[in-house]
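Handout, section B. The chain below has 104 residues.
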Amino acid sequence: MNRSYLVQILVPKETGRGRPVTKNWFDEFLQELTDKFGGATSFVRSPGQGLWRSGDTTERDDVAVVEVMAAKLAPEFWASLRQRLERELAQEEIVIRAQEIISL
């Protein structure tokens, strides 16, 4: 059995400063991931809605999911990418998660 990983990046549709993340930014980000991993998929047009508690208030974000399949996990790469995205998008935290895929 071949094992690989599905890596999902939850990207907010707006920066922490309230500005929309542009289509051009998403296109360049997808191209970057495609160049590195051979492909990427984005779910930008049907964003998910994230809700979470922050003290006494409920925060909200519309997020796009960007996925890549990777043969191996490289935690240092993903941590570095997460930090870069947090800076670029003015976010406290960007979620990047992975799950193992077992091809059937």
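Note. The first helix runs from residue 23 to 37. Compare this with the example in section A.
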